[in-house]
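Exam revision sheet. Question 4 asks you to relate a sequence to its structure. Input first:
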Amino acid sequence: MEKDLNDIRTRLDEIDTRLTGLFAERMRTVAQVATYKKEHGLPILDTAREREVLNRVTLDAGQDLEHYMKILYQTLFSVSRAYQADRLGADSPLAEMLTQAAASRKDALPNRAMVACQGTEGAYSQQACQRLFEYPDILYMNTFGDVFNAVEKGMCPYGVLPIENSTAGSVTQVYDLMEKHRFHIVRAVRQRVSHRLLAMPGARLTDITEVVSHEQALRQCGAFLAQHPGIRVTAMDNTAVAARYVAESGRRDLAAIASESSGALYGLNVLPEAVMDSDSNFTRFILITRDLALYDGANRISLMLTAAHRPGSLYRLLSHIAAADVNLTKLESRPIPGSDFEFRFFFDIEASISEESTIRLIDQLSREADRFVFLGNYEELR
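Answer key, C-alpha cells:
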C-alpha cells in the first residue's frame, strides 16, 4: 500500500529533527576549531581540508546524489566560516579602520566645498554636484583620471564621477581607474539625464552631417543615430564640452547631444527631434574623498576585490554575503589588464559599518579575497 503524504512528511520531520541536532553539534565543534585557530594564528579558510571533506561526502552519497551533496556541503562550509569569523571577532587593521570610522561618524556633508568634476560648465556632473552641495566651488578637469588625481593629491577634498547609467550601463573608464587610485565614496546621487540635439541657431536636422557627444550619451541615443546613418558620430570627453565645441565652431552642419541647459549656456538651439532611447534615463554619480569618512544615513557599501582564479572562489565570497542576510545590489566584473582572463569584482551591498556584524562580514571577505579594497559606506540620493 502506498504511504499517505502525511506519513511521508512525518518521516521527513523526524529526519529534520535529527539533522537539526547534528547541525547544532557540528557548529559547537566548529567553535572549538575557531578557538584552536585563534590560539595558533591559523586562517579561517582551509581549502585543502574543505576539498578533502567534499571528496569524501560526495563519494559516500553515491553518483545520483553527489551533486546535491556538494551543494549542501559548500553551504555548510560557508556557514561554518561565517560562524568562526563571529567567534574570532574582527581584529584586522581593516576592521580597526572601519570601527574608528563608525565611531567618528559625522552628521552631514558641508554646505560649501571645492569639488573636482570632469568636463565644463553645463555638464551633468555639475548638476549632480549642485545636488550634493549647496554652494560648491567647482574645479573642472579634462578627464576622469584628473578628478581622481585631484582628490588623491589633495588639490580638492571632493570629486564627482559618473559610475553607471540606467540605459547604457557602467562607465567602464571610471571602474578601470578605481584600481589605480586611493579614494573613498562618501555619497552617491541618481541624476536624471535628459539629452537634446543642440545646433547653431537656424540649423535644421537636414543640415546636420556630424553629431558630437560623450560615448555614453551616444549609446543612450543609439536608436536615433541608427535612423540617420548619414550622420557621422564623434565621441568627445563630455556632453557639455561637445556643446561648447559646436558653439565655438559656428558650423551649421554640426550638432551636439547634451542637456538643454548646456544649449542655453552656449547659445545653441534645441532641435525638436527626440533623441534618447528611453525617457527614463538616469546616471548614478559618486562623490569621492581621499580618506574614509562616514555620514549619517549611510546604508550602502561598495567593495572592490579580486577572487582567486580557481573554481568556487567567487561562490565562497558570495556565500558569506548570503549567510549574513545582506542584500547584494550590484555585482560588476572588469578584466584585469595583462592577465589571462582574470577579473576584478565590484560589489554593492545594503549595510552599514555602524553594525558590528557588517564589520565582521567585511573582515571575512577581505581575508578570503586575493586583493580587497573597501571603497566606502554612503547614502545614495534619488
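Marking note for examiners. The first strand starts at residue 112 and ends at 118.
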